Amino acid sequence: MFVPGHWAAAFINSLAAQGGEAAQGLSALEALASWVKTLPGAVFGSSAADRLEKLLRESVEKTGKPAALINSGPALEIALRFLVLMVRKNVIRHIDSVIDEVKKTLDRKNGIVQVTAEYAFPPEGNFESRLKETIRKRTGAARVDITGQVNTELIGGYRLRIGDEIIDASVRCQLRKLEACLAAGSRYGGN
Fold this sequence. Notes:
Helices cover about 55% and strands about 15% of the residues. The chain folds into 2 domains: about 5-105; about 110-185, Glutaredoxin (3-Layer(aba) Sandwich). The protein has a 4-stranded mixed beta sheet. It has helices at about 5-15, 20-35, 45-65, 75-90, 95-110, 125-140, 170-185; strands at about 110-120, 145-150, 155-160, 165-170. The protein is α+β, with helices and mostly antiparallel strands. Strand 1 (about 110-120), helix 6 (about 125-140) and strand 2 form a beta-alpha-beta unit. It is built from 7 helices and 4 strands, in the order H-H-H-H-H-E-H-E-E-E-H.
């Protein structure tokens, strides 16, 4: 069974052991992975890994390294070897979930809380800054990053995803709660 968290931890530990900076390693891994995804057909196995390593090294040299890789120190080499290992082990299809786990791990380490917000309407005034401050105080985070979007399915209010937790302050949710409460009351002899 493939466990993205184990691969993410191995990547981060490799960076630490080699003196690589985690953020640079993540940038290098994302840049190289996006290039690998453009390759036609399936990429897996030892011979494919050897060819891929050669292609990646040539590409980095020819292009003068993408901006994300400039001054990345050992991070580029570690990211390159990591991708080649994933190809060799036939798990390259999971690269996106590994990258997500690396991001989550680095966010936890740096005290960053990622919030996804859905609004019925674009928020007015300083709603997002107040929301960030409230979440920062309650979680003790060093920083709160909010990605917001309008969801036309919401009647009003908002819905937040903070890690694995969902806070639903939408009108639709409140109406469902009211309906359930009224239904429970009628079952127990209420009016």
